[in-house]
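Chain A, query sequence.
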Amino acid sequence: MTHSVIFDLDGTLIDSAPDIHASADTVFTALGQPPFTRAEVQGFVGRGAPNLVARLCESRGLPHEGPEFDRVLARFLEVYEGAQALTVLYPGTRAALEALQAAGCKLGLCTNKPLAPTLAVLRHFGLENLFAAVIGGDSLAVKKPDPAPLLETLKRMGGGPAIFVGDSEVDAETAQNAGLPLLLFTEGYRKTPVEALPHDAAFAHHDALPGLVAAFSAPAVP
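Chain A, predicted structure.
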């Protein structure tokens, strides 16, 4: 296999919603707000930490811009950077990444999670050395679904054929905008039915991923 394979992170490689939920509750209960449900928080995941915190603020009638919001966001980022205790890898993730790398694929990561907590969680799971390039939600001036972060990840990996692996509406739109095929992980944080999202193949367990990538890499049969 010679493709570059670029991954989303939250909802694709890791189930981080419990830590995001816990971080939100830590910050907002200190402000005198009632706890959130996991569903509330997970429903706002996908477009980066500033959007997440703004949506959480809106849901509690708090300012979602300005100095007060900036303080809440800064506190959330402070708590979130160290929040890995409740996060887990999806089953088969590590084996799939190692199999792809062993097969000759370059691996990259393109996420809307801020770079500091992204690198922290990669170190937590011992995955940091598997990725040739990592782009976080604050690495560029724009975030997914703008194609720039995905294309910049590929550029840093040396270019060439590439596949994007993601779980959400944002990932599907990003792949379309970048002109890359999408392998859709169906067990993540999407809210739209699988059949309603544009994708080239779907999978429910990471054991299937090396075979799907190999199928894209196989030469066309005349």
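The first strand starts at residue 4 and ends at 7. DSSP finds nine helices and eight strands in the chain.
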